[in-house]
Amino acid sequence: MSADSILRCPHRPPCGGCALLELAPERQLSWKRERTAEALARFPSLRDVAVRECIPAPSPTGYRTRVKFAVARGSGGRAALGLFRPGTHEVLDLPGCLVVHEGLRPVLDELRGLLGRTATAVRHVDLRWSTLESRAHVTLVVDGPSDPRRVEGVAGALVAARPEVRGVGMRATAEGPVPRAVGGATVPVLGEPHLVEAIGDARYRLSPGAFFQADPAAASRLHDVVRGWLAPAKGRARSLCDLYAGAGAFAIALADLAGEVTAVESVGTAVEDAAAGARLSRREVRVVRAPVERFLAGLGPGSLDRAVLDPPRRGVPAGALRSLATAGPARLAYVSCDPDTLARDLDALLPLGLVPAAVVPVDMFALTDEVEAVALVERARRPWRPAVLGRYGAVVAAAKPAILPMHPQAEGEASLLLAVRQAEGDEELQPAHRLDVGTSGPALFARGDALRALGRAFESGSVDKEYLALVKGVPHKSGRVRSEAGAPGGSGEETRYRLERIVGGYGLVRVFPVTGRRHQIRRHLRRIGHPILGDERYGDPRANRFLAETCALSRTFLHLAVIAFPGPDGLPLRVEAPLPAELELVLARLTAMRRTNAS
What we know:
- This protein is of the alpha+beta class.
- The chain has three domains: 25-58 and 215-379, Rossmann fold (3-Layer(aba) Sandwich), CATH 3.40.50.150; 66-186, CATH 2.40.50.1070; 388-598, Pseudouridine synthase (2-Layer Sandwich).
- Helix content is 27%, strand content 27%.
- Strands 1-15-16-14-13-10-11-12 form an eight-stranded mixed beta sheet, with helices on both faces.
- Strand 8 (195-199) and strand 9 (202-206) form a beta hairpin.
């Protein structure tokens, strides 16, 4: 295919699966590079990070070795298998889809006939092809209980007609108004439950539903980027961790780079796959079943030389980033399928002493607008300097990132206090007030008489604060919340608020705490039925999860926007801090999602 040629597809429109189909190949690559650069540019701290040219996919067609299609009644006694028509739940039949691996196309065609002749409520199909074995596995996703007897007839007929199908399983749809082909365990129905795939000379066992790159040939190029960054100049590293390891893709491929290689994964079937893959590849890999955050919290300072992060689309929890930075890897490869959450996490790593040297987009999903990128991260050569919002004699106002605690909470952990002292060259500075981990905004530091004067101002109520919070639902235009006797924090607590605007069905409120008790704002907003989004302790778990998965929310949406206090000369001072980029990102994605749904 020439560089200027454009592929044609009989299913587009209306199919929206290959959003970049009408662009020439080189323009597709530049689009993905620009998308990555735009995500970084949202964060002022990342605007100078180099974004390299996008590495092309080996082939723009026939590359998808895993396909998840919805199923519906078709015409002529055949079922329709394909994607939903954009904005609807109508299934578009997609025979001959350009990106589906050629080995899966006849299997899909056979399923169209079989499912068109059966009354079994198969709602989705999930197929995987092994390029190593030239075999397929098919999972039938059904409504109701996962009883293999319900699909034995379909499974037997499929294997008889298509002997390359070496196994069939079944899974129940996820609950909800629209059945989804996710969640739940796959129950074996017929044949072998696993496939084996290869990337280079590494072998991987894949269970049904296992997370693994859909294009093994493109994954080889991705592995080359990661290897090139993590390989020591001489010899081997002491230790390497593959975090969010899935089936152990990076741990197995990079096992020769370090004396101790560990794959960390929380899903049981993936852990079993990773261990089996290491044995098949004859590689020494320790496989640990644990949440990444808990595993990293158990590492000591400086215990890690190299690491790979390959998280889900929502990115990495703040606690895991803090623990990772404390573990002290000299180099880190962060593999991401969402440029926005990648940029958000890279920005969060800066105050922790880890900086991106470059970001490399890799085209893992040709013709689509899906963007994969690898951030090449290393230990900072210079200490991070917090943004100073103002200096007033012996008082310093610094912008606190949400990820940093005010004080060190563990040995070797970064904190705003240590950063401010180092930047100002003043070891006597102390924080004049509390600002929780997970909350951003101006933090006041002082020493001597100025510190004592600020302490008296806080005690007397002479300090005014204004917070911005995004809450569930839409509250009244303004209101006041008071604590009753016996409530947490005691009686006399008072919080006032004003609705600033509505964003995507949620309320952005400006909050004025009249008193300043621990977690007061968070408790009071929950009490009136409008908990702060992203708040793990007082918030709504379903709303938090939804915004984490769709809008890149990774923290409590609470920001100290204004603090006003008496200055050293007694005159009032007012320090303002704009909403940080990671929260502006949430608002932007909420707005875009609302606009898309409206259209």
